[in-house]
Write a structure and sequence with these properties.
heterotrimer; A alpha/beta (about 600); B alpha+beta (about 250); C mainly alpha (about 260); B: about 250 residues; alpha+beta; Ubiquitin-like (UB roll); Fumarate Reductase Iron-sulfur Protein, Chain B, domain 2; two-stranded antiparallel ribbon; 10 helices; about 35% helix; elongated; C: about 260 residues; mainly alpha
């Protein structure tokens, strides 16, 4: 097709959040012609929503901290299902990546001796999160964005990739459309890095923006890549619950790190009733000890308010179900009774404004009302730990869209470090792979022509409203494949997903193709249905409860499932699942868990 | 359920206002109402939004003539039955409905000086004291909503100045570079001058509308102007330089 | 193609529904009233309207400079008023106010301005605003002079120490004028804002503390500007009224 706008690159990066920007910077630094595509404007990616900080064992606040402790925390937080090598690389390289951000302009809060200050967060043994108040993600994306802009990387904003293209087995490019004009655009590329983030938009209560529609997960599956751990969806324990319009909006874990405690409606600090055996040894079991911990981390054990997110989310869910929740279906998060107004405003300025402006609540005086919100997909593209390469030659993945790093549950603060550690590795290996190829792989003109035509089908007539389909999917997933799951409900979800797929083929959008958000949603629905099916199939397969996957019908962990990843593949239009053994951790690392 | 009476710009440069009645609930923000409008009556309405929490700066629009973030404007701030006019950012060319072409800002961003930091000390750390960076941290709160660029009369009313005036957002960025304790760029205030600093007549609309509450005028633009005064317009410093050589 | 006309064509001059014009009208009116009053009182009436009463001297004339070679019709205020006039005219706060009120550049935020072209402070005459630093130095000299005038108001020749309403007014006025000067953006910059490293020495740490204090004062520069403008006008009026026998000053002295 001669008339389609075409760009040619060595490396095409899809997604301009933390991972995508870091990948593009690295690929470009290695001399690869690099293009970057993003659905929104540059600098608006969901990374800006990350608040608390970036986890890196720099030992600036507690010199006892090192990569081994961080590695151990990460693995235990993930209930040992993590790809051990990814967790190791992550813990080892995160401090360098943080210092690199500083070199590029990020201004983290400081310790008294001028080093980067680190804060406490759930599941981390020591204060470890480098941060800027409660807007660390914004700092990171702005730093990377400004750095990338000066590297001369070509950025294609408001452009949505709809299909990956292959030349035989290997990647040869991507096909997308400009949101502004609705016209198609072809990116020919020797290597593609997917850094598209998450899929929270398949749930009705979510902290994710409209972009979190699982595009990258779906594109990779369609290109034939293996997916792992798709059943693990993290529900962040603290999302806003009122007013309805902000339901799901994130309340940073930093609130608890800085002294906030969870209480039910009778004022009880209920987290003391939910300490799992795995964390009992290092968690305070009395309020007095927990209170001491804020000032004395050596002699007191940490408060259970800072248990890993899956534990806290389940605890809140149970309290609300037992009738000890608020009228709006949440519990209280109270920082006002421990900290001064000045301290709160200085440490948590955007939380203060968020509650003041959106809920009319002054968090320096009153407790916040919070409840779980769909936040993060642990699962994603199965990648090689060293190179971030997927199972498809030329296809790389980094950030939330990649699986394995976080196991069954991610610790707070580990996502920002994940983005830069594996973003850099993905960019590096994609560039090396691309520069090693001779000639540009060919693209299938027939497939492009077919897709360019079928993408316009929603204008041709039908009766389904894309917004209605989306709402029905969100409700279905939230109820049936949400925090607590059972086999029968999930099978109902599969039936509903099949029904929605059928109805999507008769979707109708009004207007024309220029900046038509209804049309964009109709096209994103295909991805959302694909990932919903993958999540549900994987969740049915894992007959145990672990991390971000809790089964009412299999309430405890199982030894058998502790040894396997659930792998999801798409072949043709059929989704298959398989259990495959975890990579085996070497003995010297195993020793870290023996104490 | 109360109903909001909306007047929304539809179409491109030659478009017009279309009026809608949309139901809303207590606690909603303008963006929620626009979303509901989109889901029920105007499926192809073009808007930008991402985080819906005042953190990404995507949903900027002019609401009743004032540039604001739609996600941070609560419905409770309007009088019952008041017509709520929602227009795109007027300074930038319209693409469609509430979406404008803000690419000029990205072109200016490419021309900004890059930070060049001195190296780490022997222990591998770049030491900076909190008191040396808290000023710049205020500047780095910027979410690039471009509301300040939209309201700034230098380019709003005189688009011909777009070639030699960077706008408030970028003076904030220039102030960040100028005041960074470790930055090795030449500290000359002429840098900001080259971006049209003296076109600003400090009428402070940028500060008035900033959703992040950055004191753009008082803490970024005026200090940059004062740094230029240090170099060119301060008689005592000039005498000092003559007598004691370069300070 | 001028886009300003595009905006007007599409949306009109402004779509603001609040009463945005109140602020520029009010502040512009206030400034105008002061300019007219001070011109009449200090320059036009000058020597023909007494400005000294007992220990009190109108602040428009402080310090009194009256060399013999100056003809009677020239007011001694001309030797004084250029300084505050220059300081206030180039003040960042007043610039904001009169650009909005008098030059309508812009009349209000998101309100179309009438001018066809615009070069801000990059060309004559507005490039002269850079003289604010010079006027700041002069204004700093005036702080002790005004305090001297205020203290003098507590001492009546022949009777010695005492206090009257006028002394209190002149003291309050000296304080407000001092605060207006101390809260100046330019001074805030000189004292510490021009530094890139506050932590580098004890000297710079001290300057940071001073900067913090001046920054607090500077946040209310607008308030100090208006308070001192009103106080200096009132002090002048009060002294004139006493000096010309319209009012009697309440005081502790027996013979004034």
């Amino acid at each position: 097709m001669a008339d389609i706008e075409t760009h040619e690159y060595d490396v095409l990066v899809i997604g301009a959040g933390g991972a995508g920007l870091r990948a593009a910077v690295e690929a470009s630094a290695l001399g690869a012609r690099t293009g970057l595509v993003c659905k929104s404007l540059l600098g608006k990616a969901h990374t800006v929503m990350a608040e608390g900080g970036i986890a890196a064992a720099m030992g600036n606040v507690y010199s006892e901290d090192n990569w081994q402790v961080h590695f151990r925390d990460t693995m235990r937080g993930g209930k040992m299902l993590n790809n051990w090598r990814m967790a190791q690389i992550h813990a080892q390289e995160a401090p360098d990546r943080v210092k690199e951000l500083e070199e590029w302009g990020a201004l983290f809060d400081r310790t008294p001796d001028g080093r980067i200050l680190q804060r406490d967060f759930g599941g981390h043994r020591y204060a470890r999160l480098a941060h800027v108040g409660d807007r660390t993600g914004l700092e990171m994306i702005r730093t990377l964005q400004q750095h990338a802009v000066h590297r001369g990387i070509e950025v294609h904003q408001e452009c949505t990739v709809n299909r990956l293209l292959k030349d035989g087995d290997r990647i040869s490019g991507a096909l997308g459309y400009w949101r502004e004009s609705g016209r198609m655009v072809l990116f020919r590329a020797k290597a593609v890095v997917i850094a598209t983030g998450g899929l929270g938009k398949v749930y009705s209560i979510t902290s994710n923006s409209w972009e979190g529609t699982g595009d990258g997960h779906s594109l990779a599956m369609q290109a034939g890549a293996d997916m792992i751990d798709m059943e693990f969806v993290q529900f962040h324990p603290t999302g806003m619950v009122w007013p309805p319009s902000v339901r799901g909006l994130l309340v940073t874990e930093g609130v608890r790190g800085d002294g906030g405690t969870l209480k039910n409606t009778s004022g009880e600090r209920f987290m003391f009733n939910y300490i799992p055996p795995m964390f009992a040894a290092e968690t305070a079991d009395t309020e007095a000890e927990a209170d001491r911990w804020y000032d004395d981390k050596v002699n007191a054990r940490r408060t259970p308010d800072l248990l890993p997110r899956d534990e806290v989310a389940r605890a809140i869910n149970s309290e609300v179900k037992a009738g000890r929740g608020t009228a709006h279906g949440g519990v209280f998060l109270d920082i006002a009774s421990r900290r001064s107004a000045d301290y709160i405003k200085r440490r948590l300025p955007s939380m203060y404004h968020q509650f003041m402006q959106l809920a009319g609540v002054d968090i320096t005086k009153e407790p916040m009302e919070i409840g779980p919100t769909a936040h993060y997909a642990m699962g994603g593209v199965r990648v090689d730990a060293e190179t971030a390469a997927s199972t498809v030659p030329g296809l790389y993945a980094a950030g939330e869209v990649a699986g394995g790093m976080h196991g069954s549950n991610r610790l707070g603060g580990n996502s920002l470090s994940d983005l830069v550690v594996f973003g850099r590795r993905a960019g590096e290996s994609a560039a090396k792979y691309a520069l090693g190829l001779t000639g540009q792989p060919s693209v299938d003109q027939g497939a492009i022509a077919e897709r360019s035509a079928s993408i316009l089908k929603p204008f041709e007539g039908g009766q389904e409203n894309p917004y209605t389909l989306h709402r029905e999917l969100q409700e279905c997933m939230h109820v049936n494949v949400g925090i607590i799951r059972t086999d029968s409900e999930m099978r109902q979800a599969l039936v509903k997903i099949a029904e929605l797929k059928d109805r999507l083929s008769r979707v109708q959008v009004e207007g024309h193709i220029q900046y038509n958000t209804g049309w964009h949603l109709a096209l994103d629905m295909e991805h959302m249905l694909c990932v919903s099916e993958a999540i549900t199939m994987a969740a049915i397969e894992r007959k145990e409860s672990r991390g971000g996957h809790t089964r009412d019908d299999f309430p405890s962990t199982s030894g058998e499932f502790s040894q396997v990843n659930v792998v999801v593949r798409l072949r043709g239009s059929a989704v298959s699942v398989a259990q495959e053994p975890l990579p085996v951790m070497p003995d010297e690392l195993k020793k870290l868990f023996e104490e | 359920m109360p109903k909001a009476h909306l007047k929304v710009w539809r179409g491109d440069d030659s478009g017009q206002y279309v009026e809608y009645d949309v139901e809303y609930e207590e606690g909603m923000v303008v963006l929620d109402v626009v979303h509901r409008l989109q889901a029920t009556q105007a499926g192809d309405l073009a808007i930008r939004w991402n985080c819906k929490a005042g953190k990404c700066g995507s949903c900027s629009a002019e609401i009743n003539g004032k540039p604001k973030l739609q996600c941070m404007t609560r419905m409770g701030t309007f009088i019952d039955g008041e017509t709520i006019t929602i227009a795109p950012l007027k300074t930038f060319p319209i693409i469609r409905d509430l979406v404008t072409d803000v690419s000029w800002n990205y072109r200016v961003a490419e021309t900004m000086p890059e930070l060049k930091l001195s190296g780490p000390d022997a222990s591998g750390h770049r030491r900076m004291q909190q008191i040396d960076i808290d000023r710049e941290q205020e500047f780095r709160k910027c979410i690039e909503c471009y509301i300040c660029q939209d309201v700034c009369h230098v380019i709003r009313d005189h688009p011909e100045n777009q070639g030699n005036f960077a706008g408030p957002r970028f003076f904030v960025q220039l102030a960040n570079v100028a005041m960074h304790p470790l930055d090795q760029n030449p500290k000359s205030a002429t840098v900001a001058h080259g971006f049209g600093l003296d076109y600003c007549n400090i009428t402070k609309c940028c500060t008035d509308v900033c959703p992040e509450g950055i004191h753009i005028t008082d803490n970024a633009i005026i200090p940059l102007k004062e740094r230029r005064v240090d170099e060119y317009y301060d008689p005592i410093r000039a005498i000092g330089r003559k007598l004691f050589g370069k300070k | 193609m001028a886009q300003a006309t595009d905006i007007q064509r599409r949306y009109g001059k402004t779509q603001r529904v609040d009463r945005w014009w109140i602020e520029p009208a009010l502040f512009g009116g206030g400034l105008l009233a002061f300019v007219i009053y001070s011109t009449v009182s200090a320059l036009i009436l000058g020597n023909s309207w007494h400005f000294e009463a007992g220990p009190y001297l109108s602040p428009f004339f402080e310090p009194l400079i009256k060399p013999g070679w100056v003809p009677e019709w020239i007011s001694p205020a001309v030797f004084i008023l250029w300084a505050p006039l220059g300081f206030r005219t180039t003040c960042y706060y007043y610039r904001r106010t009169y650009y909005r009120s008098f030059f309508m550049s812009p009349p209000g935020c998101a309100v179309t301005e009438p001018a066809k072209s615009y070069s801000g402070e990059s060309k004559f005459p507005f490039i002269l605003q850079n003289a604010h630093r010079l006027f700041l130095y002069v204004a700093l000299v005036f702080i002790p002079i005004l305090w001297y005038g205020a203290l003098k108001a507590f001492w009546l020749d022949g009777e010695g120490l005492g206090v009257g309403v006028g002394s209190l007014i002149l003291t309050a006025n000296a304080f407000l004028l001092m605060m207006y000067t101390l809260s100046c953006h330019s001074l805030r910059h000189l004292i510490g804002g021009g530094l890139d490293c506050f932590s580098c020495s004890n000297y710079t740490r001290t300057r940071r503390k001073a900067w913090d204090i001046l920054s607090l004062a500077n946040e209310h520069h607008k308030g100090w500007a208006w308070a001192s403008l009103i106080s200096v006008g009132l002090a002048d009026l009060y002294v004139h009224l006493v000096a010309n026998g319209v009012l009697t000053d309440l005081n502790t002295w027996s013979n004034f």
